[in-house]
Structure formats: structure tokens, C-alpha cells
Amino acid sequence: MNKPMLQLALDTYDLPSALTPLQRAAAQIDIIEVGTILCLAEGMRAVTAIKSLFPDKVVLADVRIAEAGSIISKMAVDAQADWVCVVSGAAPSSFEVVLAEAQSRS
Predict the structure, then answer these.
(1) What's the pTM?
(2) Where are the alpha helices (DSSP H) in the chain?
(3) With 90 as the cut, is the pLDDT of residue 34 above it?
């Protein structure tokens, strides 16, 4: 059986307030979610900063892609996100362009 993974969601308004709980929990977590609020407040620089501080962790950019999937997924992956979120109600074409972006990086 695979080991369950633990994810910490960082839904703060700024990077400094996200780093305090992250630094305390980093040894116990597997996935760092740069939450939607943090992505909106700080932009993709929050993803870049967190990935540079924790390069061995999976970093999820919770950008909730519904439209403009190609652009948003490219921005998140360029910022070093390992994973992105696509909302379940997104058009199939959004899934397709996000998948194409991910496959172009592998």
C-alpha cells in the first residue's frame, strides 16, 4: 500500500505569513499548496520562492484553472510548480491545453 501524502495549504495574503507555518511543518508534509489567495495576492513569485526554499517538496499552485489554461499553466510551471489545479467544471479544451503544457515539460 502506498503511504498517504500530507498537503499543507497556504491560503494567506502574503508570503511572510505563509512561511512561518510552512517552516514549522515542512519536515512532516509532502505537498505544499500555494493557495489561491496567496497566488492572487503575491503572484507566481510565491510559487518560485517556495519551490526555491523547499526544492524536494511537491509544490501545487492552486490557480483553479477554468479558462486561459494554456497561459495560466505555463505561468505556474515557469514558476516551478510541480502541480496545478483545473476546476472540474472547466471545458474539456482547458484540460487539454493544461495537459499539453505539462507533457511539453516532461
Answers:
(1) 0.93
(2) 15-25, 36-42, 45-53, 69-78, 92-105
(3) yes
